[in-house]
Amino acid sequence: MSVDLRDIGVTLAGRSVLQGVSAHLAEGRVGIVGRNGSGKTTLARVIAGLIAPDSGTARIGGIDMARNRRAALASVGLIFQNPDHQIIFPTVLEEIAFGLTQQGRRPGEAEAAAQAMLDRFSKGHWAGAATHSLSQGQKQLLCLMAVLAMRPGVVVMDEPFSGLDIPTRMQLMRYLGGIAAQVVMVTHDPGQLRGFDRILWLDQGQLVADGPPGEVLPRFEAQMLDWGRLDDLADLTD
Ligand SMILES: Nc1ncnc2c1ncn2[C@@H]1O[C@H](COP(=O)(O)OP(=O)(O)OP(=O)(O)O)[C@@H](O)[C@H]1O
C-alpha cells in the first residue's frame, strides 16, 4: 500500500489549514508530528478520505480518492482521536462485528472474527459489555480492535495511545509492529515513533521536515523544548 499526496491544500471555515503538502508515502510506518493546531488531524482526515482537499490530489494504493472514493475508502481505516466519535453500537462485539459485515462477511462469521480479535488482546470477556460503560482508554482500545479486525491496507491513527495504560500501550505497539498494514500515526510523543521509517513534521499547515526519525525527531524535540522554555504563552499561540 502507499499514500500519495500531491500539493494538498485545505481551507476550513475560511482559514487555510494545510498548504502545499506533498509526500509519497510507501514506508510501512509513518509518523506525523507538529504543534497543536499545525494541521496533523486535518492531514490524517484527508488521508482517510473524511475531508476532500480543496486543492491537490490524495491517492491510496494508486486510487484517486476524488475519482473513486468507495474503492479508496475500502483500503483505509481511521482511528479517531476521540473514541466517542467512532463508537455507535450498544455492545462491544456488535461494534467490532459491524465493520466486518459491511465488508460482506456473514453475521456468524463476523462475530467469530470479532471474538478472535478480543481474545487476541485478552479481552474476550468484553464481548457482551455495554460500550457506554467502558472507560475512555477501554473505548480507545475497542476502536483500535474494530479497525484492525477489518485488516485495512492503511491504518491512520490520531493519538491512539493517549488514554491507554502502559501494559495495553506496549501490547498494542507490539501488535502494530507485526501487522502487514501501512501505519500512519499522529502523535505528540516522539517515544511512540521508535522503529518508524519516516516522519512528517507539520508546522502551520506546511511540511517543514520529512525524513527518517533519526534526522527529523532530534530537530523537532529541540525546537519544541526551545518553545517550551518561553515564559510568555502568547508566543506559543498562532
Ligand atoms: N472544522 C474546522 N473548522 C474550522 N477550523 C478548523 C476545523 N478543524 C480544524 N480547524 C483548524 O485547523 C487548524 C489545524 O487543526 P488540526 O486539528 O488539524 O491540528 P492538529 O495539529 O491535529 O492539532 P492538535 O495537536 O491540537 O490535535 C487549527 O487551527 C484548527 O483550529
Condensed summary:
The protein has helices spanning 40-47, 69-74, 92-102, 107-120, 136-149, 166-178, 213-229, and strands spanning 3-12, 15-25, 29-34, 55-60, 63-64, 76-79, 154-158, 182-186, 198-203, 206-211. By secondary structure, it is an alpha/beta fold.
What can you tell me about this protein's structure?
The chain has helices spanning 40-47, 69-74, 92-102, 107-120, 136-149, 166-178, 213-229; strands at residues 3-12, 15-25, 29-34, 55-60, 63-64, 76-79, 154-158, 182-186, 198-203, 206-211. By secondary structure, it is of the alpha/beta class. It folds into 2 domains: 1-75 and 152-231, P-loop containing nucleotide triphosphate hydrolases (Rossmann fold, 3-Layer(aba) Sandwich), CATH 3.40.50; 82-150, no CATH class. The strands form 2 sheets. The chain has a 6-stranded mixed β-sheet, with helices on both faces. Helix 3 packs across helix 4, helix 3 runs parallel beside helix 5 (136-149) and helix 4 packs across helix 5 (136-149). The two termini are 35 Å apart. The mean pLDDT is 91. Adenosine-5'-triphosphate is lined by residues 12-13, 15, 17, 34, 36-42. Adenosine-5'-triphosphate binds at residues 12-13, 15, 17, 34, 36-42. It comes from Paracoccus haematequi. Its EC number is 3.6.3.-.
List keywords for this structure.
single chain; 2 domains; six-stranded mixed sheet; four-stranded antiparallel sheet; globular; ATPase-coupled transmembrane transporter activity; ABC_transporter-like_ATP-bd; ATP binding; ATP hydrolysis activity
